[in-house]
Amino acid sequence: MEAKRCADSSLVTAIQMMPQDANPLGNVHGGVIMKYIDNVAGMVGTRHSGRVVVTASIDRLDFHFPVHVGNMLILKASANFVGRTSMEIGVRIEAENLTTGDVRHTASAYLTFVALDHTGRPTELPRLIVETEDEKRRHEEARRRREMRLAERAREKKEQNQA
Question: How many CB atoms lie within 10 A of CB 143?
């Protein structure tokens, strides 16, 4: 299985937010943004793995600023870390006011995906090649998040077994 560079699967996509995406105040629903995040992250996972991928978890999603009707939602997604069968995809979400050109970093998210084989079982992933300083930083941060996720899962399992 041939290793792949971060740049080989990274994506940037943009969608204009419409009235049906928002509440009565004109703020786009977080769930609408979450759907786009999951979609773009899944495409990155599929591009990296060459397989169908499923969302295993969304570690973190922080909204910093609202997104309004008429804004262009810009999603920048890339693989941050790849393990044996799972990978972390990071998504940076920006909102651009199309009339003023102002761009705000509105949210960030980290999602874990698992690649599946033709029988629906987890399958091995190509190794991730990190090249730039930014990719190396994101890879190291993702490695630490993975360690925390695994430790938390082990604690939860231990607590469930004691109950």
Answer: 13
